[in-house]
Structure formats: C-alpha cells, structure tokens
Amino acid sequence: MFERFTKDARAVVQGAVECAAGVKAPVVGAEHLLLALLEREVSRGSFALAALGVAERKESVRQALEDARRRAGLSQAEADALAGLGIDVAEVVARVEETHGVGAMAGGPKGVGRRSGRPGFARDAKEVLEKALRVALARRERHIGDEHILLALTVRPGVPAEVLADHGVTHESLTRVLGGAGEACA
Fold it and tell me: 119: Cβ–Cβ under 8 A, 6 or more apart, which residues?
C-alpha cells in the first residue's frame, strides 16, 4: 500500500513514527498521525488545515491531544459518558497522578509493537491508513496524499476526530476546502 503514498503522505507516516518515538510511546497511534500532519507546511493537508483556521491553533490541538493522552486515551465524549455514570475522569486521573506521577495513565504496555527501537503501528493508526486508501479510491484519486490521511482521521471515531471537530475540521468542511466530492467512508 505504501507504494501508492505520495511524498507528503510518506512524510506524515515518518513524522508520526518520529513523534511516537520522541515521547517513548509503545506504538504509533492515530494521534501521532494528526500531530505529524500539524507539522507539515507545504502540502494539500497543511493547506486544508490552514484554510480551516487550524494553523493558528496548532497548540490548542496539541493540548487537546495531550489532555486525552493523560485520560488514558479517552475522548471527551467518553469522559462525559462516564461522568453521567458518576465517574469523574478528571478526579481519577488526578488521584492516579498523585500516587504514580504526572502522565501515569498516558502510557501503554511497554514494548508492544517495538522492533529495533522503533514503535510499531497501533490498530487505530493502521485503520486510519487503510481508510486513507478508501478515501482516495472514493475520490477516484490514484495516489494517497496527506489530505487523504487527514480526511480519514475525520471519519474514524476517536480522539483525533473529536479534537479536529472541536477545532472546526470535519469531513464535510475538508471536502469543501479540498474541492472534491468523495464519499464519507465511515
């Protein structure tokens, strides 16, 4: 599949690997793909993010992803659902961090997906990359660009889609900015 990736898409994947390795994450997750997309400057994905106003709010996106990481990867919607059951996720995080240190819930099982010091890909990241292929095919485009990875992040439920939506980036808004019809590959 990677032979169909453009130079920009490959740079996003490589950036995600570096991002995960930089924070000693056991695996590359979908959030690392989003973080790598935020770092791109001259690509279709970066153009779309800039057109939707995210370029000026990159730090806000990073902070929202960090907050979710500290909640053990729970989205805000999941935290709200637990609150409805009387479970205060912020309080749970605070107590765990009080005992075990800041970011104690952020880690995953050590060594999972690691080979030669590089993190492997988590299921959510693999699903995003597969969905990027489906998005490109739905748009009748031959190669997978970083914009397809971005579109895929918006249609796969989870923290990255929630954070993007909170910052005004949805599949519909991206499709408008990118000028393509394409189907939502949910």
Answer: 17, 20, 21, 25, 26, 27, 28, 113
Token pair recorded at residue 160: 């990255």
Give the integer Cα–Cα distance in Å for 184 and 173: 12
Per run of 10 residues, the mean pLDDT along the chain (length 186 residues) is 88 95 89 96 93 93 89 78 84 77 58 57 95 93 95 94 95 89 46
Query: According to the model, what pLDDT value does residue 81 have?
Result: 86
pLDDT of residue 68: 87
8 Å CB contact between 6 and 143:
yes
Alpha carbon distances (Å) from 82 to 48, 71, 89, 106: 34, 12, 7, 18
Q: What are phi and psi of 115, to 5 degrees?
A: -140, 130
Q: How far apart are CA 11 and CA 5, in angstroms?
A: 9
Domains of the chain: 2-73+118-178 (1.10.1780.10)
Single pTM value for the model: 0.82
Token pair of 136, please? 């490109």
